[in-house]
Specification:
The complex is a heteropentamer of chains A (236), B (379), C (305), D (257) and E (289).
Chain B: E1 7-13, H1 20-40, E2 44-45, E3 51-52, E4 54-60, H2 65-78, E5 83-85, H3 90-103, E6 107-109, H4 117-123, E7 127-129, H5 134-150, E8 157-163, H6 166-181, E9 185-192, H7 200-208, E10 213-217, H8 220-232, E11 239-241, H9 251-254, E12 263-265, H10 273-286, H11 294-312, H12 316-325, E13 327-330, E14 333-336, E15 348-352, E16 355-360
Parallel strand pairs in B: 1-4, 1-5, 6-7, 8-9, 8-10, 10-11
Antiparallel strand pairs in B: 2-3, 12-15, 13-14, 15-16
Helix pairs in contact in B: 1-10, 1-11, 2-3, 5-6, 11-12
Chain D: E1 3-14, E2 17-28, E3 32-36, H1 43-51, E4 58-63, E5 66-67, H2 73-78, E6 81-83, H3 96-105, H4 114-127, H5 142-155, E7 160-164, H6 172-187, E8 191-195, H7 199-205, E9 208-213, E10 216-222, H8 223-228, H9 230-237, H10 244-256
Parallel strand pairs in D: 3-8, 3-9, 6-7, 7-8
Antiparallel strand pairs in D: 1-2, 1-4, 4-5, 9-10
Chain E: H1 2-26, H2 35-53, H3 57-90, H4 93-116, E1 129-132, E2 135-138, H5 139-161, H6 163-173, H7 175-178, H8 185-208, H9 218-232, H10 237-258, H11 263-277
Antiparallel strand pairs in E: 1-2
Helix pairs in contact in E: 1-5, 1-8, 1-9, 1-10, 2-3, 2-4, 2-8, 2-9, 3-4, 3-8, 5-6, 5-10, 6-8, 9-10, 10-11
Classes of the chains: A alpha/beta (236), B alpha/beta (379), C mainly alpha (305), D alpha/beta (257), E mainly alpha (289).
One magnesium ion (MG) is lined by residues 43-44, 86, 164 of chain D.
Chain lengths: 236, 379, 305, 257, 289
């Protein structure tokens, strides 16, 4: 479904991604692990088109070359991102933010169904639908961000640390919900520090270090990988 | 001097900014026309009978005092022009007066209406004030109104509004005692800020005041708005006197041809062949007719300069002396300055049969007697 | 940062400028007067608006008040005293205004400051018309252009020195923090109101001083002349173009723009607007970061090759 | 230990919404306390009121016995309270070092000039940002921004430090380092009020914690007891208190201790 | 009563003149200092159509408005789009747009000066009295009032409730995030700017029916419009409508009951007091922190 090959990304002179290649198959959920500053967010940004990438990369989504397609059209193709910092519209209400999620043409037909799903997932959003997002608590905003991405009926949902700032109980619910999303056949690319949870709902994973992929494998393998166990699962 | 090939004449007027409309109607076209007229005749004539063409240096003062001052400095010391024509506006003429004096240029201040003209002429010996002072216009108006009141055509109540800038204040300040002297009762007397575009409230008040005469010492945008809004409000006082703009060529269009009877400052003697000829050439050369107030005076002041040069040459001191003492033959007739001021002017005019004719001073030849009460707004 | 060489260059430059009136004729002097006044205005403006990003269009309010003070007081009091009084009036006015205004952010502040300038103008007009009954006022002071030039040179130098001091001081840093993020500013111990007010008043007082110094040049003063909003706009534009974040940025905006205006109005009096507009647009595209930054970059590139 | 920070019946309303109601608790000098609660329970709002970013609707907040609830944020900073923000705030146009210098320059006893640069480097070293001192603020990634925020807060020389989810988004390894860092700060005698959703961190750092729900305090006591509390589990932790997440993190905490 | 009527009608004009700017500044984030020049250009265009081929200004609207739309569309493409692109990194679109539209102001004004000179332009259309509740008002002013109401209310509803309106507001407040929900930010901004230009032109057409204008009178409209926009809250059409009416009413009331000399002062005073009371404008939404 998504092939990324030869992807490099520079911030001015700083090389944040160095020749990255990854692949996500139809219906697959893939997790990206890595320390802070490894380039995980940069990778998601590059795929979604928020940051420009070097010329020789190839980015292919469902047989379509993405390189020259702007971000907004990638969303239209079914590629949604919940970015670092959430990317919400603070001056708009919860309801309006969700409606904007369903802005792409292909998402409109599923709007009602997806909204129901989002409200099931985060009941709080239903009761706060008129509140301006900017006045919500950090965790509440995170719910809106995930909800909005779901509203866009993605084919590939990319989540950058979706559990950030959520209360433990909500984190559990979130992962339960994501596994439902997965069950619905949506492919996912997740960046998470909640390694155990995210591996539990993933098929495969990559491990990044300073702009490189250093390890990859099936979720099971990664879980048993000693390096990962040591640094990301906190067990010996 | 003999070696010169042309006479350099410079001026700065507002081509842009808030003053550009006024300058573009009254001042700049007359400069163009005058130069055209003279150069067509082979140039400025000098005492020896030779002619030198005029070379013009013009600047845009961008409606800023600082700019106009600098432009004059530039004309005087950089371009070293032979003569400098004045800018548009009372404030700007005053701003440059000390400079003109210092550099020794005669200043024929036209579009400057100030009651302090005698004082200024005294202070700056080479300055000439040729459009009168506010008092001249308002006293003349008071006379006209008094006459009508005496013959029972209007009651003794007046409603008056004035624009809050130097011009409007000058007029209203002298108008108040003048009206009072003639026994008038000023029942509505308000000042409005420059830039006001809606006069409906003031018109309504004036209408309710019971005054037969409505006087507005206004500027063109206000004059136009007052005209249109009075028509709509069917406000048709027996005397309707509006300020600058009534004499502008566009005025009939603005009034939709219903300007009959509207009074204002200035006016012309339409029977004077000199004026009609001038108006025709103005139209030909600049594409627009002259306005009925300051245009012809502007042109006349240029004629005075021209004739002074013809008599005494390019020496600026001599020209200044000649301007203050000589008599000149202009489109306004034969004129002579008194204490550096032109007094032979038309103070009050009125639209009559499609012309803005002069009605006061009534004693002067060419004056027409005013139509009071003003006919209704219909054509 | 500050070297002896730089100081001596500055002193020599100042000395040369001070001698200029002996070599220039009236027009050249007039040009310098106009330029210096905008240098002082734009530098004073940038002192507050540069770091805080509060774009003030109230320049002409203070400038006009300065000029008007001179017009009102010019008989009987000596000029230096008048200048002092003008500055004091500017100070009081700006403090009063600042208390109210500085709560506003962004464009709300921009337009508020514009409205303020107009309000001052309207109130003065109304007062003159209804209370004193004299709208236009005359200034007959025995001041020659070179006197005005020297005073303006002094004012511009003073402004630059103050600007330099502010920049080096904690309050300068505080302003930059405020410009970046007022929430952080408050939470690291900056008294927002006091800091902004102080600098706003300082900047406004200097602007008032410039207006007062320049007034005698015009002889006749009325509100529509001295409260001409163009002054505010030009100040902003020149400062922005030069680079309001740097001490000499405004200077580098004023000089070329001023000369450009002059050159255009002299050579193309009838097409001034069109050419100016087109050039202006071109400048914005060519110099995205202001003149000073452009020069810097140019120098860097030269140094590299 | 004497009471240092004291909140009495503090409440905050936003229009119709009561974000915090009737909150009272005290914090002793040198104490480190965790503040927990579901999303939207009013934790950040409470910090905002202590730091002066929000005015209290009613109630009293005092520090060292002096009332601070009517003071401006800058006055409160000068009373010795520093904070970080849940949504990181750094000065984007300044360098990392300048960001810290700003923390030094406006505190109660300001430091300025060359000395400030030295202290700034020290603070940056503490949070591990020394190498990035000359980078512009806007180029830092999320975690480094957080570190910088902490360095800036420390620069103000606080007696009380308010941390709003400062440890969120870290890998376990980094979390460990972060916890270590906070502990080292605590040992210098600074009191810390720490808002966090990461239980392992709370357990590791805070002997005592306060739990909020819907703007009210529902539990206050020793961390172990509070986290066993049924109400807390139901509202916050979700079902059984020892879910998978908590287990794994508990064990890590165990190692740390 | 009379002054109420006069004030409302006057206020309608102010509101009408401000609608386009609130679109351009509120959505496309272009602080358009040349806004008034757009208004005046449309006024001149109407004037020319009226005096050359005697075209009814109400019909001229259907020529002038689409023309203004396409011109603004291209102006955006040529002048603004590069700035927007450039400012993505540095975020100084406001400064840049002030500078560039300042240039544009001179350019347009210069062209108008060359084409039409400095003279006052005026024509008369529907300058006929209409009786409303016993008060006579010019028909052309009523049209201005009506148009302001219709446009203002419908734009308000559109922006507040339609999907398109939400899109507009998304672009207005967080353009950098809008693309994440599939919005083509540049295009939306461009269309918003063009619509703003069209609204400016509509105002110009209507105003030209009752007000004399010159090539240089654009600035006045820009400033009035800015004040109305700011007072109402940037990007809020209802705000623009209501603050326009408030200003009109204030002007008429002060003129009648206090002193015409204080009308403009009162306008500014109301504006200033209102802003101090509500720093984000009447209807501006503000999110703190
Ligand atoms: N806008 C930027 N300008 C310059 N450098 C940047 C920028 N954004 C990120 N970087 C740098 O690029 C590298 C990768 O950053 P990225 O945000 O992708 O890391 P990450 O793996 O997502 O880390 P985190 O877990 O902290 O979010 C980091 O070293 C970071 O400092
Ligand atoms: N400015 C505001 N206007 C209106 N409501 C607000 C405002 N600020 C906060 N709230 C509301 O107050 C409640 C408490 O918010 P707060 O930010 O304190 O929560 P929190 O406990 O920090 O949550 P989180 O763990 O998600 O950060 C929330 O419901 C939020 O929506
Ligand atoms: Mg990241
Ligand atoms: Mg919070």
């Amino acid at each position: 479904m998504l092939y990324v090959d030869n992807l490099s990304l520079f911030y001015d002179l700083h090389l944040a991604l160095d020749n990255i290649s990854i692949e996500i198959k139809e219906g697959e959920t893939v997790v990206i692990l890595g320390a802070n500053g490894a380039g995980k967010s940069s990778l998601l940004k590059a795929i979604s088109g928020v940051e420009p990438i070097s010329g020789n990369a190839s980015l292919i989504f469902e047989e379509r070359r993405l390189n020259d397609i702007p971000t907004n059209e990638r969303v239209g193709l079914g590629l949604s991102l919940v970015p670092e910092g959430r990317g919400l519209f603070p001056d708009l209400s919860v309801e309006e933010n969700l409606r904007l999620g369903a802005n792409p043409k292909r998402a409109r037909q599923f709007e009602a169904r997806n909204r129901e799903f989002v409200f099931d997932l985060f009941p709080k959003l239903a009761s706060r639908s008129k509140q301006l997002v900017g006045t919500m608590s950090g965790g509440e905003q995170q719910m809106v961000a995930v909800g909005r991405a779901i509203m866009s009926a993605p084919r590939l949902l990319m989540l950058d640390e979706p559990s950030l700032g959520l209360a433990p109980i909500v984190v559990l619910e979130l992962f339960a919900a994501l596994s439902e999303v997965r069950a619905a056949g949506v492919s996912m690319l997740i960046v998470e520090q909640n390694v155990k949870e995210s591996l539990a709902i993933s098929d495969r994973g990559y491990l990044m270090e300073t702009g490189h992929i250093v390890e990859q494998g099936m979720a099971e393998e990664l879980r048993n990988n000693t390096l990962i166990q040591k640094t990301y699962l906190g067990s010996t | 001097l003999a070696s010169e090939k042309s006479v350099k004449i410079g001026y700065a007027v507002s081509k842009t900014g808030q003053n550009s409309a006024g300058a573009g109607i009254t001042t700049a076209p007359n400069y163009v026309l005058w130069v055209e007229d003279i150069n067509a005749a082979g140039g400025l004539q000098l005492p020896d009978g030779s002619r030198l063409p005029i070379e013009i240096i013009e600047y845009d003062d961008r409606s800023s005092s600082e700019e106009v001052v600098r432009a004059i400095e530039r004309l005087a010391t950089q371009d070293k022009v032979d003569f400098i024509l004045p800018p548009w506006g009372t404030g700007f003429n005053l701003a440059i007066a000390p400079l003109m004096d210092r550099f020794g240029y005669p200043q024929l201040a036209v579009t400057a209406v100030t009651d302090k003209a005698p004082e200024f002429a005294e202070r700056w010996k080479k300055s000439f004030w040729v459009l009168g002072g506010g008092g001249d216009y308002s006293e003349s108006l008071a006379d006209v109104l008094a006459e009508a009141n005496k013959s029972g055509k209007i009651n003794n109540k007046i409603a008056v509004i004035s624009v809050a800038d130097g011009f409007g204040i000058d007029l209203i300040k002298s108008a108040r005692p003048a009206f009072k002297k003639h026994g008038f009762d000023v029942v509505y007397d308000k000042t409005y800020p420059l830039g006001t575009s809606d006069f409906n409230a003031m018109i309504a008040e004036a209408k309710a005041s019971g005054a037969d005469s409505f006087v507005a010492f206004s500027y063109p945008p206000g004059t136009f708005a007052l005209t249109k809004q009075s028509q709509i409000a069917s406000f048709n006082p027996k005397v309707l006197y509006l300020g600058v703009g009534v004499g502008f060529p566009v005025y009939p269009k603005i009034a939709e041809g219903k300007m009959e009877g509207v009074m204002s400052l200035g006016g012309v003697d339409v029977n004077s062949a000199a004026f009609t000829d001038y108006a025709k050439r103005h139209m030909e050369v600049t594409g627009n007719p002259p306005d009925y107030w300051a245009s012809s005076v502007t042109y006349a002041s240029l004629q005075m300069l021209q004739q002074a040069i013809e008599r005494v040459g390019l020496n600026r001191d001599a020209v200044s002396k000649e301007l203050s003492s000589g008599e000149f033959d202009t489109i306004l007739g034969k004129v002579k300055l008194e204490d550096n001021q032109l007094r032979k002017l038309w103070w009050t005019g009125q639209w009559k049969n499609g012309n803005f004719v002069a009605v006061a001073p009534a004693t002067r030849e060419g004056a027409v007697s005013p139509v009071i009460p003003k006919p209704a707004w219909q054509e | 940062m500050i070297t002896g060489a730089k100081v001596s260059v500055a002193i020599i430059a100042f000395g040369l400028l001070a001698l200029l009136p002996f070599f220039l004729e009236a027009y050249g002097l007039g040009l310098m007067i106009g330029m210096l006044s905008y240098v002082a205005l734009a530098t004073a403006w940038s002192m507050f608006s540069g770091p805080t990003h509060y774009i003030s269009l109230a320049t002409v309010a203070f400038y006009g008040v300065g000029a008007y003070t001179v017009a009102v007081l010019n008989e009987g009091i000596s000029f230096p005293v008048i200048l002092l009084i003008a500055v004091l009036i500017g100070l009081v006015l700006s403090l009063a205004v600042g208390v109210a205004t500085l709560r506003l952010a962004g464009v709300y502040f921009v337009i508020f400051s514009f409205g303020l300038a107009e309000l001052v103008r309207q109130l003065i007009t109304w007062y003159e018309v209804n209370v004193t009954g004299t709208l236009g006022r005359y200034i007959f002071l025995p001041l020659e252009p070179q006197d005005i030039y020297w005073l303006l040179l002094g004012a511009a130098t003073l402004t630059l020195i103050i600007g330099w001091l502010v920049r080096r001081s904690r309050i300068g840093l505080a302003l930059r923090v405020i410009g970046d993020d007022e929430v952080i500013a408050a939470h690291i111990g900056i008294n927002l109101t006091r800091t902004k007010l102080l600098l706003f008043a300082l900047s406004a007082s200097l602007i008032t001083l410039v207006g007062a110094i320049q007034a005698p040049r015009w002889v006749y003063i009325e509100p529509s002349i001295v409260f001409n909003p163009t002054v505010s706009f030009l100040t902003v534009i020149m400062a922005l173009l030069g680079g309001p974040h740097r001490l000499f940025g405004p200077l580098f905006g004023v000089v070329p723009l001023f000369l450009l205006f002059e050159w255009l109005s002299a050579n193309f009096p009838n097409h001034y607007s069109i050419i100016l507009g087109a050039l202006f647009i071109a400048i914005v595209f060519v110099l995205p970061n202001g003149v000073l930054e452009f020069l810097d970059r140019f120098r860097l590139r030269r140094a590299k090759t | 230990m004497t009471s240092f920070l004291e909140l009495e019946n503090v409440a905050k309303k936003f229009g119709g919404l009561t974000a915090v109601r009737d909150v009272s608790f005290t914090l002793s000098k040198g104490e480190i306390v965790g503040l927990l609660g579901p999303n939207g329970s009013g934790k950040t709002t409470l910090l905002n009121m202590i730091s002066g970013a929000n005015k209290v609707t009613s109630g009293k907040i005092s520090l060292n016995g002096v009332s601070i609830d009517s003071l401006r944020p800058d006055q409160i900073v000068n009373k010795g309270v520093s904070r970080t923000f849940q949504l990181v705030r750094i000065l984007p146009s300044m360098t990392v070092e300048e960001n810290v210098i700003c923390g030094l320059a406006f505190r109660k006893m300001p430091v300025w000039g060359a000395k400030a640069a030295i202290i700034a480097r020290e603070k940056l070293e503490i949070v591990g940002l020394k190498d990035k001192a000359s980078l512009p603020g806007h180029s830092l990634n999320y975690i480094d921004s957080k570190r910088l925020e902490l360095a800036r807060a420390l620069a103000a020389d606080p007696e009380l430090l308010l941390l709003d989810e400062w440890l969120s988004g870290l890998t376990p390894e980094e979390l460990e380092a972060g916890i270590e860092l906070i502990r080292s700060i605590e040992t210098t005698g600074i009191s810390i009020l720490i808002v966090e959703h990461i239980m392992s961190a709370i357990r590791a750092l805070c002997p005592r914690c306060v739990v909020m729900n819907s703007g009210e305090i529902i539990a206050d006591g020793s961390t172990g007891t509070v986290l066993q509390d049924d109400a807390v589990s139901a509202a916050y932790l979700g079902g059984a208190p020892c879910c998978m997440l908590t287990i794994s993190l508990c064990s890590m905490t165990y190692i740390l201790l | 009563m009379t002054s109420l009527m006069i004030g409302l009608v006057l206020g309608g004009t102010y509101a009408l003149a401000a609608l386009g700017l609130t679109m351009q500044y509120g959505v496309a984030r272009i602080m358009n200092l040349a806004y008034g020049e757009f208004v005046i250009s449309a006024a001149f265009a109407t004037f020319v159509l009226f005096s050359s081929i005697n075209l009814n200004p109400l019909l001229a609207m259907f020529i002038v408005a689409p023309a203004a739309f396409s011109i603004s569309y291209f102006v955006y493409a040529i002048l603004m789009a590069p700035l927007v692109k450039r400012s993505k990194k540095k975020g100084n679109l406001e400064n840049d747009s002030i500078l560039i539209t300042f240039g544009l102001l001179f350019l347009v004004q210069g062209i108008l000066l060359v084409l039409f000179g400095a003279d006052f332009a005026s024509y008369n259309y529907l300058n006929i009295p209409v009786n409303v509740f016993g008060i006579t008002i010019a028909a052309n002013r009523l049209i201005a009032f009506g148009l302001a109401m219709i446009l203002g209310l419908s734009l308000y509803c559109l922006v507040a409730y339609s999907q398109w309106g939400i899109t507009l507001r998304a672009v207005a407040t967080k353009p950098e995030n809008a693309r994440l929900v599939g919005i083509n930010v540049d295009r939306v901004a461009q269309i918003a700017f063009a619509i703003g230009g069209m609204l400016a032109a509509l105002a110009g057409v209507v105003i030209s029916m009752f007000q004399t204008f010159t090539a240089t009178s654009g600035v006045v409209f820009t400033m009035k419009a800015l004040i109305v926009v700011i007072m109402g809250g940037v990007g809020n059409f209802m705000g623009a409508l209501i603050s326009g009416l408030i200003l009109g009413l204030a002007e008429a009331t002060v003129s009648t009951y206090v002193d015409p000399g204080l009308t403009l002062a009162s306008t500014y005073l109301i504006f200033l007091v209102l802003l101090l009371w509500r720093p984000q404008g009447l209807f501006g939404k503000g999110v703190v922190k």
